[in-house]
Structure to design on (155 residues):
């Protein structure tokens, strides 16, 4: 069976889901630098049960979406440039006598101690699109079947 209609529908759905996801990200006010929004894309992937849309984005997007608990031990300092970039994007100014690096470390320690509360932006976007997606994809599948049946019958 040809899947032309379904492939086009899936591409359209992926584009709309990306837009909705970015809208949710901005509504949560969790997009200070714009990097996370720019990195979001949905990619069709074949699975044993059919085709699914997989999200690709900056790694920290999954932490924003799901949150995280505190950490018992420190990781590498790869976090520091990202926190400094966030501080600058938010226009946060350290108190007199405190450097941006010191402030970034204090924020890092706080996240490690307290964790980070989730600010979902993917799940709400998916929920908004689910009903429309199901109807559109079902119609595209029906169209593909109709095209295939016409080919079989007109042989």
């Amino acid at each position: 069976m040809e899947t032309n209609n379904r492939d086009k529908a899936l591409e359209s759905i992926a584009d709309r889901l990306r837009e909705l996801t970015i809208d949710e990200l901005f509504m949560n006010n969790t997009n200070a630098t714009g990097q996370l929004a720019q990195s979001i894309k949905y990619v069709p992937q074949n699975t044993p049960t059919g085709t699914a849309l997989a999200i690709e984005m900056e790694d920290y997007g999954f932490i924003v979406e799901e949150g995280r608990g505190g950490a018992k031990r420190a990781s590498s300092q790869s976090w520091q440039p990202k926190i400094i970039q966030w501080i600058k994007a938010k226009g946060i100014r350290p108190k007199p006598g405190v450097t941006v690096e010191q402030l970034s470390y204090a924020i890092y320690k706080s996240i490690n101690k307290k964790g980070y509360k989730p600010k979902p932006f993917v799940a709400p976007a998916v929920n908004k699109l689910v009903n429309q997606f199901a109807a559109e994809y079902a119609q595209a599948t029906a169209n593909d079947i109709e095209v295939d049946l016409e080919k079989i019958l007109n042989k």
